[in-house]
């Protein structure tokens, strides 16, 4: 088999793409991606996970070059990228490229924004670099998915570092060779494993991918060389990290087929595979108006990945509860909620939630897709009610509208920076392409 | 199969081991490891690779907490660990755990020294932490080698991050749970691929492993949690990174069998697998006294890994030439040299070296071990001379003596910091266990 020059050709595209080559609909989706990511970064900013990361890194930080979104601190570019990547993912509320389950913006936008602040770059250039980075990230993901993910890699970390490197390389104005080196330095830092799901280390993955991808491009800028075949070489990324290598997914129809336009935004703050269950349980609660006591049992038939990824029977913390379809179903039925407040430490240990959670069962159902579920509710009065979700809210078939994104943004960020600042930040975020210097937007994100 | 609690048990050992539990011979080898590593870090300190890394990171560095060995700069702990890891490996002249081809000290000592400077820790404690870190690193390497390496991983990076995390955790005084978290954070950052051999990015691997391992422990110190089963879980390190998982190599005879005592030190500044060839060619040169013109051809029968790892036919840079058995044989025959000066950009492009290099052939020989080679020299006068190396110099069977380590140290570090400072540094290095504060030793390493 003749292997194409994947790394060099991809680098060429990153370098040569002109702003006018990005179609309007792709850029519109890019703005939605940016707005959603920024809201999540603010929403997660005062999570204990972010506090502890901040406590660890403060002793090493350099000049105050970039904003830590939703917090008073400013850090050097690399640490700001790390922290923003963590905060934007810690609530599991961000965005999803459904073909690969990559959460694209965390690694890419966290890097691009911090770099752009240091170099005083316009919002329009940052937006385009973010779109390019997400395209690189999702295409590399497509080339190795699903084998790569099935092996146990957290693809948001492993593919994300390439996206962060590509976006940063573009912002730094690297040439083709140095962009290829940056991709090589990304390849050799690609990391993140699924065992970490349910711990603080999960959100470390997009943060570190952002930081490492940015570092890759800065090293290349300084002439630190690397392989120009980091992705496709025999002992390169794709062969080591996956049994599947479909390079046409990376190079095919570059600039015509846009993976960045397929991004979706989570309506619920947890693993995407339990969204159909939450959607259906909230609908059942609204339709039936029953209390937890009236429910005898809940039987779920789901996609097989649901149990592999979110099968925790007895979560003990808020972060663990995001990986429990049982917890999510219980809270959706009891509270009608799938927002960040549905996955707190206190709800994970709430007696009523636990009592109903333990009456939820789940098994893989034949022909059930990733955005589907069949829920059977058995009530104490003998009734059995079944609800089938064909396409969960937030999926490509039922995307969040701009006003739903607004509501999501305001709800989570008002809790952190207050309603007034959240409103100003939201307004500035929608106007990102008009910002002369992108750092001006982030000025609205500091808490009062 | 019942999988033991590898991560937690290993963490317990790291935490509980007392200084008196380390046997004298193990600690003696630890001192030799430290002396050799320090000399290599000085020797590589003004390499272009280090200059370029420094140029990239300076803009982000924090407080001047730790020494960049052999250079005037002081950087924050994390960046100093990165730079020292790069400089100590860039000449491919460091140490080798021959069972796994791990170069143990780069990741571990680079982290431990920088951390110890920040926290004003004694030489004795640093030495013990380094020994413990190397033990963890090599045992994890043993558990997955050779499948892991054969797949394309650069095991010095992938296993090294665990060693750096373990050493740092011990220096920070973390408890068992937090040490397990540090190992989990190491697992999820484990990286480095073999495609990078021959570029600056190869030495980035031990540097980044040092930095990332240290970061893992600092995060754990701040309560940033992680899996406590990062090594052995189904979607954990060992299962994802290798088809072989022999946990007995990690937990068996802990504290009785010491991998750290098996370290070896390179007599030549290149990949270990071509050392038998260089050893034999230098012997042939000394015995025959022939010039390059008098040699018609050189035929090598080697271990199969030699061609896989060092089969570059036409290296164009000094770094590439370290991965060319042809270049190494040519220079050894022409100059009698395998030191860093045998692998410079100018020798890689030298006409005489290239002319003889192109008359060297190599093929795998049946029954040839990794520390063996058979060299057939055909001379223009018709003679054929054969040399068989049973155990190359520097191998476990023919270790470098302390005075050979002295000579190696002085030769490479005098070039960078001058003979006087090199002598003082060497003397201080042998006394590491007596240093009240380990940073005092490194004060001798700055160039005049």
UniProtKB/TrEMBL annotation, chains A, B:
Protein name per its UniProtKB record: 2-methylcitrate dehydratase PrpD
Entry's family note: Belongs to the PrpD family.
InterPro entries: MmgE/PrpD_sf, MmgE/PrpD_sf_1, MmgE/PrpD_sf_2, MmgE_PrpD, MmgE_PrpD_C, MmgE_PrpD_N
Domain MmgE/PrpD C-terminal: 268-429
Chain ranges of the MmgE/PrpD N-terminal domain: 9-248
Organism for this UniProt entry: Aquamicrobium ahrensii
């Amino acid at each position: 088999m003749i292997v194409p020059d994947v790394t060099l050709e991809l680098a060429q595209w990153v370098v040569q793409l002109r702003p006018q080559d990005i179609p309007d609909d792709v850029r519109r989706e890019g703005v939605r991606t940016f707005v959603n990511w920024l809201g999540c970064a603010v929403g997660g900013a005062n999570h204990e996970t972010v506090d502890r990361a901040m406590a660890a890194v403060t002793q090493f930080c350099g000049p105050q070059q970039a904003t830590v979104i939703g917090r008073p601190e400013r850090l050097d570019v690399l640490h700001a990228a790390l922290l923003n990547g963590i905060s934007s993912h810690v609530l599991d509320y961000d965005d999803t490229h459904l073909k690969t389950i990559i959460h694209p913006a965390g690694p890419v936008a966290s890097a691009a924004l911090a770099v752009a602040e240091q170099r005083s770059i316009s919002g329009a250039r940052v937006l385009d670099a973010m779109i390019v980075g997400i395209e690189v990230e999702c295409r590399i993901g497509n080339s190795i998915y699903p084998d790569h993910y099935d092996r146990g890699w957290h693809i948001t970390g492993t593919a994300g570092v390439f996206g962060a490197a590509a976006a940063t390389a573009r912002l730094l104005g690297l040439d083709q060779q140095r962009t290829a080196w940056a991709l090589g330095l990304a390849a050799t830092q690609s990391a993140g494993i699924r065992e970490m799901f349910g711990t603080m280390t999960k959100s470390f993955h997009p943060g570190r991918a952002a930081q490492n991808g940015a570092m890759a491009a800065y090293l290349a800028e300084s002439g630190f060389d690397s392989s120009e075949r980091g992705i496709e070489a025999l002992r390169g990324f794709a062969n080591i990290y996956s049994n599947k290598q479909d390079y046409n997914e990376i190079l095919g129809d570059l600039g015509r087929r846009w993976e960045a336009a397929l991004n979706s935004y989570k309506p619920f703050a947890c693993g995407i595979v339990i969204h159909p269950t939450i959607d259906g349980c909230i609908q059942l609660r609204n339709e039936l108006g029953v209390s937890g006591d009236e429910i005898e049992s809940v039987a779920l038939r789901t996609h097989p990945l649901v149990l592999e990824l979110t099968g925790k029977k007895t979560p003990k913390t808020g972060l663990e509860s995001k990986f429990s379809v049982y917890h999510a179903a219980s809270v959706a039925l009891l509270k009608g909620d799938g927002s960040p407040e549905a996955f707190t430490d206190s709800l994970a240990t709430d007696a009523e939630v636990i009592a109903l959670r333990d009456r939820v069962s789940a098994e893989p159902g034949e022909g059930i897709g990733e955005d589907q579920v069949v829920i059977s509710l058995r009530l104490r009065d003998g009734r059995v009610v079944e609800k089938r979700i064909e396409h969960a809210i937030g999926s490509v078939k039922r995307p969040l509208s701009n006003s739903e994104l607004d509501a999501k943004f305001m709800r989570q960020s008002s809790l952190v920076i207050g309603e007034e600042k959240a409103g100003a930040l939201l307004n500035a975020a929608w106007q990102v392409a008009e910002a002369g210097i992108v750092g001006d937007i982030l000025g609205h994100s500091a808490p009062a």
